[in-house]
Design a protein that fits this description.
N-(1-d-carboxylethyl)-l-norvaline Dehydrogenase, domain 2, alpha/beta, single chain, 8 strands, 55% helix, Rossmann fold, 14 helices
């Protein structure tokens, strides 16, 4: 017996490195998706995979039961969600807005306030993982917002992620994502220093990575990064520039909460050094190369 086709109509805005695989998985699951991106090449790609082409943000919002957004930063997020031609102003009453972006809790709270006045259900659905993980529908999804919106959107969430956590009614998902990204960022600096210490001290590069992958420090992140590190392949799955943007959000949150984060602050300087030396578009794990350069291990 074939699976019943979902009746919920999905709008998807932002067909980037994360949006493209997430939207593709919703199409594979049988959802009718109307998509929009200002980059026509990206929009053409998702249309070729079965999405309907949206004419504008307002067009997508007005025709959808659930509007999923995947956006790069606070500025774009605010414009897409809160503009006159944006999502909140044009979504139908009762529609669910399901945002997957990494943005600040402050701008997210602005959207929550606007959503309430328009009777739109606003669900923060932050995700942990990169484009490869998203393509495998294996993201970890952290959600907060109205519980009824979460329950309604859960079938969609389960098509983009392997595990989902409902964390509360407000900005809990935003804050949890920053905590996760803090650990990822600091771990990248730690890996860079450990590998450079080993390399400059005479350890074999490949054997050193094998040992780390078999040791008690072998987190999923370490295991995922070992194969490209063995090949010294720093092709971006999440660029240093994007990771630095996330670190800045973490530092702003820490300042507001009066939490000292000296490790994160130090790693921010490492990322800035990598970017300043031309490595901004490389993967964030290219911090390894940056530490090697500083130590003369080139």
């Amino acid at each position: 017996m074939s699976e019943t086709k979902p009746t919920v109509r999905v709008g998807f805005i932002g067909i980037g490195n994360m949006g493209l695989p997430m939207c593709t998985n919703l199409l594979k699951a049988g959802y009718d998706v109307i998509a929009f991106d200002r980059a026509q090449e990206r929009l053409d790609t998702i249309v070729s995979r079965g999405a309907t082409r949206g004419d504008s943000i307002a067009d997508v919002a007005s025709r959808s039961d659930v509007i999923v957004t995947s956006l790069p930063n606070d500025v774009t997020f605010r414009a897409v969600l809160l503009g006159v031609e944006g999502v909140i102003a044009n979504a139908r009453a009762g529609a669910v807005v399901m945002d997957t972006s990494t943005v600040s809790a402050g701008v997210s709270a602005e959207v929550a306030e606007a959503s309430t006045s328009r009777r739109v259900q606003y669900l923060r659905t932050t995700v942990s993982g990169n484009g490869v993980v998203a393509a495998a529908a294996a993201l970890t999804v952290m959600a907060s917002g109205p519980r009824e919106a979460y329950d309604f959107a859960l079938p969609l969430i389960n098509k983009i992620g392997r595990r989902a956590f409902y964390l509360g009614q407000a900005e809990e998902a935003r804050l949890m994502k920053l905590a996760v990204n803090l650990m990822i960022s600091v771990s990248a600096g730690m890996i860079g220093e450990a590998l450079t210490l080993g390399r400059k001290s005479g350890l074999d590069w490949s054997k050193m990575l094998d040992v780390l992958a078999s040791s008690h420090v072998a987190s999923p992140m370490v295991l995922y990064k070992v194969p490209p590190l063995k090949d010294r392949d720093f092709t971006s799955t999440m660029s240093a520039i994007t990771q630095t943007k996330d670190v800045d959000l973490i530092l702003d949150c820490a300042a507001q909460s009066q939490v000292p984060v000296p490790l994160t602050s130090a790693v921010r300087g490492m990322f800035q050094g990598l970017i300043s030396m031309g490595g901004g578009e490389e993967d964030y794990i290219a911090l390894v190369k940056h530490v090697e350069t500083l130590s003369g291990a080139v």
